[in-house]
Give the backbone structure.
Amino acid sequence: MKKIEEFKDFFADLSKKQKITYISLIVTAFILTESILFWAVTSPAMKGLFEWVNYVRTVVYLICLIGLIFPVIAGIIIFINQKKTPSKKPIKFLMILAIFSLIIPIGFYGYTISIPFQRDGDKPPQLLLLNGSGINGVPNMAVSFWTEDRTTSTINWGPTESMGTKSNELTKSHTHSYLLEDLLPNITYFYQVNNVGQIYNFTTMPNLPNTFKFMTSSDPHFGAENANRTVTDEILKQLIDPSNGYQSFFMLGDMVEYGLFDSQYKEACDTFSPVTSHIPFRPVIGNHDILLGGPTFWEDYFSPDLIEDAPRDYFHIEINGIQIFVLDLEWGTESYTKEQKTWFETELEESTDPDDWILVMSHCFYYASGYLVDGSDWWDHQEMIDTFEPIFVDNGIDMVFSGHNHIFERLENNGVNYNIVGGFGGHPDTDFEKEDDVIGQTGTGSIYYSTDMFGFLEVDIQGDDAYLAFRTPENQTVYNYTITRL
Ligand SMILES: [Fe+2]
Ligand SMILES: [Fe+2]
């Protein structure tokens, strides 16, 4: 009893200010460190990383453990002080530990907040496909670019070289996006930025029902040391070659290796722009693109906020009666929000007919062949299959395109055709079939599978038939097939 009294006296001797400082420091250190776990399991960007990557899980658990130390040590100090003469030393030790541990969450959150401000210079124009289509059946597009300085910019655009339509910005901004709507079919349009320099041009799709020829490829991973930039350049050459006749390009994600580095987005934008300022372009967001501040860069460069009430991260693009849905599925269903689900199901219900060609594009795959990485199996993604296959089957989705695995694959399941096109330059996946020490599995319904090549997929829809060809960067067909709309 005497010791307890001494302990009470010890606390009584502390000033009110000291008591508040000690208690608030311990509580803050505990809450801030534990909030990293909360953030890791609730934010769509981190949730996937936390679930799929072992070392991320380990780091987050370690930080949480540090947070849990405070209440434990505080308990031990109280216990010790009850047993022997009270001393300030343990409390001082706890305070030093609390201050030291605060460096982790404060540094982490501070860095995350600062990422959108760490830019690497101007980003040149992109011609982006947006939601919806205009009165002439040509999809809405935008010209978008980003400037280091806040400026008011202008574009002149129109169907003749003298252009004619002038769009001025009224307020200064870093992001510059101009909506091109109600475009006419089969017309070459011209545009110029700020009345100087290059005059860009692009040709709209002819208004022929159920015809559309496009290229798709995925996972260039700009910034990755083991990526192959030569093949990315070669594929872009095929894209802009008029003799190939591509009317659009869909890039299915993992544009950059680490979405938190604007230098990687800068390299991607600079590489794409000479081609994608002329060919209508729809990049799809991937798991690498969203790391930490990545979504801010992505929205600034590829998802302009130009159409009222239209979502910015997922799209319904209609071209010549062909319905194309671009979904935001990065690691899997973590980013399939209630809003996106409602939007997708409503759009399918209200804006499509089962007789239409209906295409779905996303970064994450559904069925796929793959191998064990970091303790996680990168083949048939059961959560994605369970969530989306019933929707695909019920709504007559014809073709599905994705990346994420750096392979080429064609699969067929329950009347739905799936394609994986991860050959745009990111390091090819290990072929589990050829490596004895690699655990892997063939995807359900796999018909063609290759990890031996880079390249792209050409899709040419002509009436009831779609011709698909997996091609190398040099434009050699390695596998092709036809599907017929039922
Ligand atoms: Fe990737
Ligand atoms: Fe990925």
